[in-house]
Write a structure and sequence with these properties.
Elements: E1 3-5, E2 11-15, E3 18-21, H1 22-42, H2 53-79, H3 81-86, H4 101-119, H5 123-147, E4 162-164, H6 175-197, H7 206-223, H8 242-266
Parallel strand pairs: 1-4
Antiparallel strand pairs: 2-3
Amino acid sequence: MAIIVNPISPVAFSVFGIDVRWYALAYVAAFIVCFWLFTRMTREKNSQVILDKKQYDDFMTAIILGVVIGGRLGYVLFYNLPYFISHPLEILAVWHGGMSFHGGLLGLITANFLFAYRTHISGWKLLDLAAVVTPIGLFFGRIANFINVEVMGRPSDAPWAMVFNGYTQVPRHPSPLYEAFGEGIVLFILMYTLYKKTNLRKHPGALSGIFGMLYATIRIICEVFRAPDAQIGFLTSWGLTMGQLLSGLLFVAGAIITWISFRKSRK
């Protein structure tokens, strides 16, 4: 028997008539926790990156802009370009949902290396630290997806399948919770363990590449339970989704970055 769920209102509260949505609060919480841990890591005795107060602030601003702009443009380009061409102002309506992790990752990488270029700090060392804390943001983002009843799962007869009143009477996999667990909790434990218990931090780019491969693997598995985006559907007759395609490319990129990182370290 499926679990019956009464969806939570996407609006957390209102201030002077302005709705504050759980989606926005999830992003705020993600950035706060990620940068708190990032700051602690850079202040450790054996940290490979040292930033002063102004650099922290500048880096945080750059990353926030990169993630938000990249995530939105990634969704526009990868998932719903025809709609946004017809409704260009909707590109700005991020509070309606619609963010792409892969686009956000590209935005983060771009902002990271632009900041590194301006400050003459190793971009790969910065990105390695970002790779360790990023799963925290993914966790909050997937919880927001669940609250918004978006990117939900495929029909299922599993006892934990869910029916969301007012949306569908078909029991479905709660795929955002699968992704919150896999991309968030499991991936963070793996990345933080690799950072703390191995010498990978001494190979700039290695943690970044490994993150790419691990995330891609988890995402590809989770996509098996997640319904494809209605406006795209499956890309092939055998069930390839856009998320799996992009994650496959990410896995290859991560493998190449890891290989280059170790190759450089041996020279």
